[in-house]
Predict the 3D structure of the following.
Amino acid sequence: MRNKKTPKIFLASFFLFSFLPLMVFADSQAESRKFFIDSSYDVANREQILATNKKVSSKAYFYVENDWFNKLEDEDKITVEQTLNSLAQEFDEVIYPRLTEAFGPEWRPGIDNDYRITVLFHQMKEGYQGYFNNGNEYLKIQNPISNEREMVYLNTDALFSKNINSYLAHEFVHLITFNQKERLRGVIEEVWLNEARADYAPTLLGYDDEFQDSNLQQRAKTFLSHQNDSLTEWLGEEKDYGVVNIFTHYLVDHYGLRILADSLKSSKVGIPSINESLKKAGFSEDFSQIFDNWLIAVYLEDCSLNEKYCYKSPNLKKLKISPSLIFLPSTLKTQFSLNYSTTFWAGNWYRIVGQEGKLEVKFEGVPDVQFKVIYVLCQNHQECSVDLMPLDNSQKGNLSLDDFGKEWTSLTLIPSLQGKVSGFDGRENYFPFSITASITRENQEQEIIAQLRAEIAQLKA
């Protein structure tokens, strides 16, 4: 479910959109055509395939790769045709009207002067369910490998998946995004937010209501396995979808679908477009504050402490990350210094537990970037308090708790980097930080003396 870009086509070429075909010849059912495909997704690295139009609905053509379909058993061919009939109806009656109502239309009648879009099924590499290539939205004189039509690609495996509706909905949002951002406003959406909207579509349409084996369940599992992944760094990996999906559900839970829709119709992209939409909707919070609250929510999941510290979605009510544990044992060596690194808009959770005493915690980042450190104090997970650790200009800060282990049984640090708000395109730089924790017990000096005397006595024995 990737959004394929064609970067060599510049925005200045939008002037050529006016030179479109004045006549349209609708595709006929059962006709075969050659299509350009993306070799990086194709199972055999092909660049072109022959496919047949298996179904024509009021909103779309559904093409299936010939080589793949012809090798199917008769029973599987019947299944595919039944699936396409059902998918076509779902697209016409649910996916198309509800997504265009929420986000606006795709380009109509488009580059091909045809009000139907094209859905092409071809064999893809493992892990890919579909993709969108904006190069098809340009004339061949601009992009020689353009199919010159509004289209999306789906994996033939999806024809045997219960989540096929979700996959088509996801890719169709990319088609809408091209029209709303690139064509109408001359800007290219940042990939993380483009994928965030697209991956929320299955929930919007009700496909995630049945949580078991849903797209949402898969994303939740991925997020919990890669909870430190950056929201904005996009490497095209499965883990990237986990964090954008789970964050987007939180955003819509508390601020509404309008934020996703209005930011799509903004001339800004990424975080600035979200902030603009929040302000337009009358919210006082900005993206940074929402991100902070989300970091706390996926750790505590506690509406009683603060209504923003939990999910409203029933399917995500029990979602909680597992923090990294820093344990201070009951020994004479009661100090640890640990080194980590992080990038922008990534979650990090470090829970400190251990013996009773005076707890000293020091945080040290690098002065090149601006860290933010939230801390959560809890008493046996029952009563918690949330605050912000003050940092100086050198990105250093400290906390001192006299009765740790009695008044509070755990301290969780949640450091993050939020200084960069735009220009996310691929891999980001990572920046180091350290956490030092130590506990001084009451009567520790007497304990040390007693232990030394015991060791001396043992040596004399």
